[in-house]
Amino acid sequence: MPTISLRGTSMPASPIRKLVPLANKAKSMGIKVYHLNIGQPDIPTPEVALDAMRRVDRKILEYGPSEGLFSFRQKLTEYYHKYNIMANVDDIIITSGGSEAVNFSFMACLDPGDEIIIPEPAYANYMAFAISCGAVIKTIPSSIEDGFALPSIDKFEALITPKTKAVMICNPNNPTGYLYTQQEMNQLRDLVRKYDLFLFSDEVYREFCYTGAPYISAFHLEGIEQNVVLVDSVSKRYSECGIRIGALITKNRQVRENVMKWCQARLSSPLIGQIVAEASLDTSEEYMLSVYNEYLQRRNFLIDRLNRIPGCYSPIPMGAFYTVARLPVDDTDKFCAWCLSDFSYEGQTVMMAPASGFYTTPGYGRNEVRLAYVLNKEDLAKALTILEKALEKYNAQ
User: Fold this and answer.
1) What was the pLDDT predicted at 88?
2) Do the Cβ atoms of 381 and 305 come closer than 8 Å?
3) How far is the C-alpha of 244 from the C-alpha of 238, rounded, in Å?
4) Which of 19, 133, 249, 332 could form a cystine bridge with 354, CB 3.0-4.6 A?
5) pLDDT confidence of 4, banded at 50, 70, 90?
6) pLDDT at site 368
């Protein structure tokens, strides 16, 4: 039998989806599963987006331009300008989801053996895409004790070698919900400028910042305009994960030209998805404010209720709709699997993402989980009751 690639064997399994077979088996047995494991919002997609999908009236569903529909990119510039992200239409390349934007950024900027520094816990796909292009991941652990703030810049500098090529951040952060401050972003700017690194900045959750402080984009950092590659997506802000539309934005012409080679190789992003995403940019401010307020209320409810469970602790996330919480167990991989395979409370159980999958440092996150507060407060209340009962039974064994 031929052997599979080393790349394939070294690719990490998704901490978000790897327990799906256990969840499916539980459901087949009639157990209701509350999904706190995945950032799939339950909030309805905007009507303007759904109407655009219903109105599609074409004789041919043709290939689109590899860089994305011009009208969509033009309209995106207006959206970005509202956030003082001064991108023009040529700076924007439409991708098949934010994940493809990350993948193409890495492929276009990193050679095999190049090193990329990423604060952890981090979105697991960053590690997967780095492995795909042969890059070496260097991680710096952040701590639940200080709310997962950006680690000291000294720790970044200690990792820099002649092979260091980039730093990757997610702001607001997935999985922690941390929102980087102006001071932290300025420190990253100075580091990137000092060592002439790329700064990959995943900003798909910019609508969900709960501090009241101004949102700081990597595009706002002066002096590193040619170093920044911004990753975006419509999945979360418009609750349309399934249309698979994202964007890569950069002022660096050479990066764009390189990225376009991969865009041309995959031909084009989904046509229908782009039509829907373009229409979504007309979503009303009332919709966006109601969604923001809903997530804010869910966050407050989740954190208050979670921190009342004996032995549990979560800092208050300041953005996105996730938190990483510490549980009173020694191995959340085992505990999360057990919740699906061996436990139910009143015919119900809960699915969570073990946080170890968001770290590359061995042993980190073993007593932590990522929770997504994408369920309504009634379902969150039920899920947290189930979690408390599960912890009681698990620790009594």
Assistant:
1) 98
2) yes
3) 12
4) 332
5) confident
6) 98
For tokens 């399994």, the residue is 13
| Kind and range of the H or E run holding 228 | strand 228-233
Tokens of 123: 């979105």
Query: Which tens digits make up the pLDDT trace of 119-175?
Result: 999 998 999 999 999 999 999 999 999 999 999 999 999 999 999 999 999 999 999
pTM of the model: 0.95
Token pair for residue 381? 């209340």
The reported pLDDT for the residue numbered 11 is: 77
Calculate the dihedral angle through the C-alpha atoms of 302, 307, 308, 312, rounding to the nearest 10 degrees.
Answer: 120
Residue with tokens 């905007």: 46
Q: Which residue has the tokens 């660096």?
A: 252
Give φ, ψ of 274 to 5 degrees.
-65, -40
153, 158, 262, 250: which is closest to 198 by C-alpha? 250
Q: What letter does residue 361 receive in the DSSP assignment?
A: S
Quick check: 136 and 116 in contact, CB under 8 A? yes
